[in-house]
Specification:
21 helices, 6-stranded mixed beta sheet, Beta-galactosidase, Chain A, domain 5, Glutathione S-transferase Yfyf (Class Pi), Chain A, domain 2, about 900 residues
C-alpha cells in the first residue's frame, strides 16, 4: 500500500433509489425548492387564476426548533417500534434524502442506537414500516486500506477497521444538513437540493495523508437497507465524473425492481481507478497539495437516464459552493415551516416567560416544529427537471426481473399528467410525485397539506390519477414507479376525497371520479398486479368486492377459517365508500350520479353488519353470515389470522368516524360510549373527573396487541376526538395533552411508532392546533384545545387563520375550553366546518384549569352520518344543561 499512502482513494457504491420523491416544485427549481407556503398557491401551473391579495408574512427563525433525530430509535414510550425517521439532508418533499445508513439497517436507514455508519446514501423514506427503499449512491470516507482489500476480494466493505464508527457527541444535523466525524478522523457533511446531493469530506492531518471513499453496488445486501443489486458504473475521461445505474428491490411485498440512474462529480481529479468484485469501484485521489484536505462530491439522480440525472445536477447545483447549497436548503425550510407560526417561537416573546416556563416552552416548540418538519417527508417528487419520470405501466405482469429491472416507458408531466380543467384550459402540474403511504397518510397528513399547500397537494393527487391511467387503477403504496400493498383495503379514494375537501382541487376530477368508482365496484380493478381491493394473504383474491357488494361485509374464506383481517377490511371499505360518495357529491356531476352516490353512502353504513349487538363488539362474519369467535383477537408479530390488521378491536372500534352518532346509539348511548372510551385511554372517573390518577403511558401507547390506545399506529389517531360525539368534549380536551406529553418526547425514541412519511407526526401538529380532520373526507374538523397561545396559520390561498387563547394550555395546565369565538362570534359546537376559516379568520378561546360543559349539550353534537352535512356550523348557544361527563 505504499503508493496508496500518497493519495486519497474513493470506493464508490451504486445503491438504489427506492421511493424517490422531491421538493415542492422542483420540476422548475434550482438549488432551492419553491415551497408552497405562506402566500399565493403555487404548484400546478396553467390554472389561469389570479391569486387573492395576500398579507405580507414576516418569517421567524424556526429551523432552530427542529430536532431531526426525534423518531430515529425504538419508541421510549412503549409500542415496541421505532419511528424509523431519517436524520439525513433533504428539502421539503425532496427526491434526495442524503444521510447515514447504520449497521442494523432499519427501514429508514438509520438507528440512533447504532454506533457504526455503513455508508451515506442518497435515498431514504422517513418513517416506513418496511425496508428495502433506501441506500442509493452509498459512500463512506475512510483512511483504511483494509476496505480496498475487502472490495477486491468481494467481501463486505462495511465497517472494515471501524472506519464508520462514530459517537453521537461528534454528530449534528439540522433541516437540510447532516454532519458527523467518524472514528478515523474524517468529517463528513451532507446537504441537498430537490434532486441532488452534495457532500464535503474533510480528512485529518496526518503523516501519510491518505483517504478512502467507499461506494459499493451491493454493500452486503443481506445485511443493509439498500437491498440493491449490482448495477453499472463508469468513470468519464475527465477524471472527475462517475455515472451509472443501480437497481433497487421492491418495497414491502412489491413485484419488480427499479433503476436509479446517477451522475456524480468530484472537485478533485481521480488519479487512479480500479474495480473490485460485486460492482465495487475504487477511486483514488491525490490530496498532497490540498491545503483544506477536503474532497467535494455532488450527484444528481433520475429514474429515467444518466442524461436526465446530469440535467438535474446541472439545473440544481452547477457550482461547487457547499455552504451556498446548505444555506439554500435552510432558507427553503424556513419558508416552509413558517406556514405555521407559533408566537412563542419569537425570542422576545419566549423571553417574557419565567425561566422554568421558558425551558418547558422550548421543549414544546421543539416537539411541535420537529413534528411539522416531518410532515414534509412525503409524497416526494419523482419527475426530473424536464418532466420525465419512469412510467407505472408494466407491460408483462408475469415478467420476473431477477437482479435486473423491467423496461418501462418514459412518462412526462406535460403529457401524462396534464389535463383539461372545467374551463377547457390545459393544466400542467409542476411535478410528478411518488412516495405515497396512503393507508397511513389519508387520516391526517393529506388534509394538512391540502390546507396549507393546495398547489402541491393538487399535484400529488394528479400524480395518483396519472399513475392510474398508466397501471390501470389508483395505487395503494407508491414506491418509485411501482405499487405495492402492505395493508389491505382501498385507501386512495379517501386521500383524493380528503385533499379535495380541504381545498386541493386543481386535478383531473373527472378521471379521479371514474377510477374511484371502479376501485370500489369492479373486482378486476387493478394497478398492474395489485387488485384495488384484496387481501395481503392472497393479493389476487378477487372475491372481496363481490363479497362486499352482495353481502355488505368481508367474509372469512370458509365458515371455520381464521378471520384474517376481515374486520379491518370491512371498516376500511365503509370509509372508502363514504369517501367516494362524498367526493361525487361535491362535483358538478352530482345530480346525474345521485343513484351511485346513494349506493356508496348506504354501503358506508355496513359496519352495522359486523357489530355483534350481544357483545357490542366488532366481529368477523363467515360466508354463512354467522359471527366467528375471537372478537378481540390481537396482533402477533406478523398479524396473520387476526380480525384486525396491526391492531385490536378496541383500537379499531372508533375508526367508524363517519357514523359516530349511529355507532354510539348502537352500543347504548353516550354513557356507554364514554365508558368504553375511558377504558381505551385508561381513565378512571370513579372518584370524579378529571381522574385522580392520570392514565399511564402504557394505556396511551400500548402496542398492536393491547386493548388500549396505540397512538403509535394510525387506526388510533382519531380516537380521542370521539368524545366530542359522545357529549364529552372535555374528555377529549383532557386526554389529548396527556398523549402529547407522555407518548411524544424530544429524544431519538420520541415518536410512539413508525412515522409513516409524517402521518404520526402530523397527528401531533393537529393536536397542538386544537383541530383534527376526524372524518377524513369531510370539509371540517373536530375541535379540541389549542396547546399554544398565539398561532398563525398561513393558508394556501394567502389568507391567515389566527388562533389565540387567554392562557397557555400546557404551560398553565389549563386544558379545558370555557368559551370560543369564531371570527368574533360565540361558537359553542365542537365541530368546525372548514368554510368558517377557509378565507382566514380568528379562533379566540378562553381556557379553564377545571372541566367545563362547553360543547356538551346534545343539540351541539357534531354532524354525523355518511351523507351528513359536515359544512353545518353547530354554533348555537347551548340550550341544555351542562354535561356531567
Amino acid at each position: 500500500m505504499s503508493n496508496l499512502l500518497k493519495r486519497a482513494m474513493i470506493l464508490m457504491s451504486i445503491a438504489a433509489l427506492a421511493g424517490c420523491g422531491g421538493n415542492d416544485h422542483p420540476a422548475q427549481s434550482g438549488s432551492q425548492s419553491g415551497a408552497d407556503t405562506g402566500g399565493a398557491q403555487t404548484g400546478t401551473s396553467g390554472t389561469g387564476t389570479t391569486p387573492p391579495a395576500v398579507e405580507q408574512r414576516v418569517d421567524l427563525a424556526l429551523t432552530r426548533y427542529v430536532d431531526v433525530f426525534v423518531g430515529t430509535d425504538i419508541a421510549a414510550t412503549g409500542g415496541g417500534f421505532s419511528g424509523n425517521a431519517t436524520p439525513g439532508a433533504q428539502t421539503p418533499f425532496g427526491m434526495v434524502s442524503f444521510g447515514p445508513d447504520t449497521a442494523s439497517a432499519p427501514p429508514g436507514g438509520y438507528a440512533y442506537s447504532d454506533s457504526t455508519i455503513s455508508f451515506f446514501s442518497l435515498t431514504h423514506l422517513s418513517g416506513p414500516g418496511c425496508g428495502g427503499q433506501g441506500g442509493g449512491g452509498g459512500l463512506l470516507p475512510s483512511i483504511s486500506s483494509a476496505q480496498i482489500d475487502s472490495a477486491n476480494q468481494g467481501k463486505d466493505i462495511v465497517g472494515t477497521d471501524g472506519s464508520g464508527d462514530f459517537d453521537h457527541a461528534n454528530e449534528s444535523a439540522a433541516p437540510g444538513y447532516y454532519k458527523v466525524k467518524t472514528s478515523n478522523g474524517v468529517t463528513s457533511e451532507l446537504t441537498a437540493t430537490t434532486r441532488t446531493g452534495m457532500a464535503r469530506f474533510t480528512y485529518p492531518a496526518g503523516s501519510e495523508s491518505t483517504a478512502l471513499l467507499v461506494v459499493d453496488a451491493t454493500v452486503a445486501t443481506d445485511k443493509h437497507a439498500s437491498g440493491s443489486r449490482p448495477g453499472t458504473i463508469a468513470l468519464d475521461a475527465d477524471g472527475r465524473t462517475v455515472s451509472g445505474t443501480s437497481i433497487v428491490g421492491s418495497f414491502c411485498g412489491g413485484t419488480w425492481n427499479k433503476p436509479v440512474y446517477f451522475y456524480a462529480q468530484f472537485d478533485t481529479p481521480v488519479t487512479a481507478a480500479s474495480s473490485g468484485k460485486n460492482g465495487v469501484a475504487i477511486l483514488q485521489f491525490d490530496l498532497s497539495a490540498n491545503k483544506t484536505r477536503t474532497v467535494q462530491y455532488k450527484v444528481g439522480i433520475s429514474s429515467v437516464s444518466v442524461a436526465n440525472a446530469k440535467a438535474n445536477l446541472m439545473a440544481e447545483n452547477s457550482g461547487w459552493d457547499f455552504d451556498a447549497v446548505k444555506a439554500g436548503a435552510d432558507k427553503t425550510w424556513e419558508n416552509s415551516l413558517n406556514a405555521i407560526q407559533v408566537d412563542l417561537a419569537d425570542p422576545q416573546k419566549l423571553a417574557a416567560l419565567s425561566a422554568s416556563q421558558q425551558s418547558t416552552a422550548k421543549n414544546n416548540l421543539t416537539q411541535f416544529y420537529s413534528a411539522f418538519y416531518r410532515s414534509f417527508s412525503g409524497p416526494t417528487v419523482y419527475s426530473d427537471v424536464n418532466g420525465d419520470y419512469r412510467s407505472m405501466k408494466q407491460a408483462s405482469l408475469s415478467e420476473k426481473d431477477g437482479n435486473s429491472f423491467p423496461a418501462r416507458a418514459t412518462a412526462n408531466v406535460s403529457q401524462d399528467d396534464a389535463f383539461q380543467d372545467g374551463n377547457g384550459k390545459t393544466v400542467v402540474p409542476a411535478a410528478h410525485y411518488s412516495g405515497f403511504s396512503i393507508w397511513d397518510t389519508y387520516r391526517s397528513l393529506t388534509q394538512l397539506q391540502a390546507l396549507l399547500f393546495p398547489g402541491i397537494s393538487s399535484d400529488t393527487v394528479q400524480s395518483l390519477v396519472a399513475d392510474a391511467k398508466q397501471c390501470g387503477a389508483l395505487p395503494h403504496w407508491v414506491d418509485g414507479s411501482d405499487d405495492t400493498k402492505p395493508m389491505e383495503g382501498n385507501h386512495a379514494p379517501s386521500l383524493v376525497a380528503g385533499a379535495y375537501a380541504f381545498g386541493a382541487r386543481n386535478f383531473d376530477t373527472a378521471s379521479a371520479r371514474t377510477y374511484m368508482i371502479r376501485s370500489q365496484t369492479d373486482p378486476a380493478s387493478s394497478c398492474n398486479d395489485m387488485l384495488s381491493v384484496g387481501r395481503v394473504s392472497t393479493s389476487n383474491d378477487a372475491s372481496v368486492i363481490p363479497n362486499w357488494l352482495n353481502n355488505g361485509y368481508i367474509a372469512t374464506a370458509t365458515p371455520t377459517s381464521s378471520p384474517f383481517h376481515t374486520g379491518s377490511v370491512t371498516i376500511e371499505m365503509t370509509t372508502a365508500d363514504r369517501s367516494v360518495g362524498a367526493f361525487l357529491s361535491s362535483l358538478s356531476t352530482a345530480s346525474s350520479d345521485q343513484t351511485t352516490i346513494d349506493g356508496f353512502f348506504q354501503r358506508s353504513g355496513n359496519w352495522k353488519k359486523i357489530l355483534n349487538s350481544q357483545t357490542n363488539t366488532l366481529q368477523a362474519l363467515n360466508s354463512s353470515g354467522n359471527f366467528t369467535t375471537d372478537a378481540n383477537a390481537g396482533c402477533n408479530s406478523a398479524c396473520p389470522g387476526t380480525l384486525f390488521h396491526e391492531g385490536t378491536e378496541p383500537q379499531y372500534f372508533w375508526n367508524i368516524d363517519h357514523d359516530y352518532t349511529a355507532l354510539i346509539s348502537a352500543i347504548g348511548g353516550n354513557d356507554a360510549a364514554i365508558t368504553r372510551l375511558d377504558s381505551l385511554f385508561g381513565i378512571d372517573r370513579s372518584a370524579g373527573f378529571p381522574p385522580k390518577s392520570a392514565p399511564p403511558v402504557s394505556a396511551l401507547n400500548g402496542g398492536m396487541s393491547s386493548n388500549q390506545l396505540y397512538i403509535g399506529n394510525e387506526p388510533s389517531l382519531v380516537d380521542p376526538w370521539a368524545y366530542n360525539w359522545a357529549g364529552s368534549p372535555q374528555s377529549a380536551q383532557y386526554v389529548i395533552p396527556q398523549i402529547m406529553q407522555k407518548a411524544f418526547l424530544v429524544s431519538p425514541g420520541g415518536l410512539p411508532g413508525n412515522d409513516d412519511l409524517g402521518a404520526t407526526s402530523t397527528w401531533y401538529v393537529w393536536a397542538a392546533l386544537g383541530l383534527y380532520p376526524a372524518v377524513p373526507s369531510a370539509p371540517g374538523m373536530a375541535i379540541s384545545t389549542p396547546q399554544f397561545s398565539g398561532m398563525t396559520i398561513w393558508l394556501g390561498n394567502g389568507k391567515k387563520l389566527r388562533i389565540d387563547t387567554d392562557r397557555q394550555a400546557m404551560l398553565d395546565n389549563a386544558p379545558y375550553i370555557k368559551e370560543l369565538k369564531v371570527n368574533g362570534e360565540t361558537y359553542n359546537g365542537s365541530w368546525l366546518p372548514l368554510a368558517q376559516i377557509a378565507d382566514g379568520g380568528t379562533l379566540s378561546y378562553s381556557l379553564s384549569a377545571t372541566p367545563t360543559g362547553w360543547g356538551a349539550a346534545a343539540d351541539l353534537a357534531p354532524p354525523s352520518g355518511p351523507n351528513a352535512d359536515y359544512t353545518k356550523a353547530v354554533a348555537a348557544v347551548a340550550s341544555g344543561a351542562a354535561a356531567t361527563h
